[in-house]
Predict the 3D structure of the following.
Amino acid sequence: MNLRGHERTEFPQSVRKAAFIRCCKQGTQPGVPQCESCGNVLRSGAIIFEHVIPDGLGGLPVLENCKIHCTVCADIKTHTEDNPRMRKADRVLKRAYGLEPTTRAKIKNRGFPKAPPQRRASAPIRKWKGF
């Protein structure tokens, strides 16, 4: 369960079939399934049924809210549109209900002592006895 109160709902089989028929009819090549975003021909295993309005923001699993995308277009839409909107909705809910973590106060201490200034930087280094 997420902050918005429900689990993800997938499209039922009837909606997926209707969306697939729509993408085969509306493309430039009739009868060939094509991405509804870029128009590339879709291969088996590379078809993604994507919510237009994300499910987490109230998008229903109906045909009007279903688009068929290739894997590239689905990733672009998910990472550039859906995820930022979902994160913002989570931030708004957390702020509205006081679910944000409290800020921790800094530990107050003296800190480390200051090193003495080096006045003889050009003098030879004498680390070992006998030199």
